[in-house]
Amino acid sequence: MKDVAFRPKTIIPRLSATFPDHVLVELPNAKHFIQEDAPDRIAAAIIERFG
């Protein structure tokens, strides 16, 4: 994750505690606007999660 606004080491544990049924999809080359950096992968993750 290359996002400078959200640091994975601090935000991921907080998200896991807040949303225990979440699904983490890592996009190593994506930055803050993931829908622009990896639109196909984001769409696939949404479809996979919600059908």
Shape: flat
Structural class: mainly alpha
Largest sheet: none
Q: What order do the SSEs take from the amino end to the carboxyl end, as H and E?
A: HHH
Number of helices: 3
- DSSP helix fraction: 40-55%
Please report which band the strand proportion falls in: under 5%, 5-15%, 15-25%, 25-35%, 35-45% or over 45%. under 5%
Distance between the termini: 25 Å
- In round numbers, the mean pLDDT is 85
Computed Rg: 12 Å
Low-confidence stretches: none
Topology, number of strands: 0
**Overall structural domain count:** 1
Keywords: Hydrolase
Protein name: Haloalkane dehalogenase
Organism: Mycobacterium tuberculosis
EC number: 3.8.1.5
Give me the secondary-structure topology.
Elements: H1 8-18, H2 34-37, H3 39-50
Describe this structure in words.
With 51 residues, the chain is an all-alpha fold. The protein is built from three helices and no strands. The longest helix is centred in the C-terminal third of the chain and has 12 residues, at 39-50. The chain has one domain. The protein has helices at residues 8-18, 34-37, 39-50. The model has no long low-confidence stretch (mean pLDDT 85).
